[in-house]
Amino acid sequence: MWVYECHKMDFTKAGKLESQNEVQQPQQPTKGTSFFRTCFNGLNALSGVGILSIPYALAQGGWLSLLLLFLVAVLCWYTGLLLRRCMDTHPLIKTYPDIGERAFGYKGRAIVSVFMYVELYLVAVEFLILEGDNLDKLFPNTAFKVAGLKIRGKQAFVMLTSLIVLPTTWLKSLALLAYVSAGGVLASFILVICIFWVGAVDKVGFHENDSVLNWKGMPIAISMFAFCYCGHAVFPTLCSSMKDRIKFSKVLLVCFITSTINYGSMAVMGYLMFGEHLKSQVTLNLPIKKMSTKIAIYTTLINPLTKYAIITAPITTAIEETSLFRNSRSLSILIRTALVISTVIVALTIPFFGYVMAFIGSFLSVTASMLLPCLCYLKLNKAARKMGLELIIIVAILVAGLFIGVVGTFTSIKQIVNHL
Q1: Number of domains, the chain
Q2: Which CATH number goes with the domain that contains 184?
Q3: Residue 364 DSSP label
Q4: How far apart, in whole angstroms, are the C-alpha atoms of residue 338 and residue 354?
Q5: Is the separation of the CB atoms in 83 and 99 below 8 Å?
Q6: Residue 41 domain-assigned?
Q7: Gap between the terminal Cα atoms of the chain
Q8: CA angle 125-126-132, nearest 5°?
């Protein structure tokens, strides 16, 4: 309650404090992340591990489900713009939970925080599962000894990966993380090129031509499509970090167009190559002896290493801001290290990459990326509640989001339970 009262006081007195500061203090040079660096961070958040499972999603839903990928992309781009407009309602709004609090008070902040942080946390878990699966394919029968205990296979690689990503989580500056993000964006494009090479040059071929539409697999397919565009939890943080926040709408457009081209290309190529035989990660289908396959898998391994820090940044920042020692560097490192350790434990407990991704997409991503932005915007903008095209679009997104969320969540949980 004390935290809520502090936030409430900040919002109500912001205008006076800011005006006083502007009079008393000399102007400082504008600081923040540039347009291009923000694009790299945004692309890194959007073009995540979903690119490996997008062919599997297409295989689940059939060729016509590809239309749903583009529809989900447009809807999520639009709700990203709604978040940007919500931020314009008050200068102290810096994060997604701030938007929830401005719209619905303390309860709104709590609801947004729960969905946002759980989503980001599980995405970080997915990164570790991905690393374990692909490293185990490259180096089967590998084992490590830790304190006299022998750890084999995927579990060993999950732990090894956590040690590699740990130092990147200690970086606080989004401007510095942009350099890491640039590597992740490059890795995503290289991966698509490698998959094309496997099909066109290494004689795997693009010969599969399976079902046009598969209704049974549609819930899993659309849930995975939603997962691919689950960057909304990071968007407000990226926007508030910019030198010129006005340009963030252009950042969103660049990020969504680029990532959708990447996703669509990967989905079509993977489905043409392996059809209904696709596994939850397309790299697990590739012929291991080919050099292009090894490059693809190594690139895949680089991808999560560059994304883990940017995805977990909002979680660690929120924890640090509630701490009494928020400016302590040693406490910051301790908090970030504890977060990495916890994701390792979860990754070792629930190693079902595809179905966990579908659950995140249907329950958490749909809520955080479609439902909450619409509800917050309607609450903060009275003009939007008047009958018109904008209201019709927002209501349509809410109805579609609820349907995807209910059906997809039920299906994904059922699959996870069946495989436990």
Answers
A1: 1
A2: 1.20.1740.10
A3: I
A4: 26
A5: yes
A6: yes
A7: 40
A8: 95
Arithmetic mean of pLDDT, 122-131:
84
Task: Give the span between the Cα atoms of 7 and 331, in whole angstroms.
Answer: 23
Question: Domain for residue 18, yes or no?
Answer: no
For 194, 225, 318, 369, 399, the CA distances from 89, given in Å and listed in that order, are 45, 30, 22, 19, 26
Query: Who contacts 271 (Cβ-Cβ below 8 Å, separation ≥6)?
Result: 55, 58, 59, 63, 208, 210, 278
CA dihedral in degrees (67, 71, 74, 76; nearest 10)? Answer: -130
Which residue's entry shows tokens 């990447």? 262
Confirm if 359 and 412 have CB atoms less than 8 A apart. yes
Which band of pLDDT confidence, cut at 50, 70 and 90, is reported for residue 408? confident
Give the CA angle between residues 289, 291, 293 to the nearest 5°. 75
Instruction: Identify the bridge partners of residue 149 per DSSP, sorted by sequence position.
Output: 146
pLDDT per residue as tens digits for the range 53-100: 899 999 999 999 999 999 999 999 999 999 999 999 888 888 899 999
Is the Cβ–Cβ distance between 360 and 126 less than 8 Å? yes
Which tokens hold the place of 215? 């209704």
Is residue 27 situated within a structural domain? Answer: no
- Give the lowest-confidence range in 30-44, 317-331, 375-389: 317-331
The reported pTM is 0.79
Contact residues for 200 (Cβ-Cβ < 8 A; gap 6+): 206
Calpha distance 265→210 (Å, rounded): 17
Domain encompassing residue 60: 32-419
Rounded to whole angstroms, how far apart are CA atoms 101 and 104? 5
DSSP state of 349: H
Specify the long-range contacts of residues 5-11, CB closer than 8 Å, at least 24 apart: 7/98, 7/101, 7/109, 10/92, 11/90, 11/92, 11/102
Q: Is 13 inside a domain boundary?
A: no
Tell me how far apart the alpha carbons of residues 77 and 256 are, in angstroms, rounded to a whole number. Answer: 7
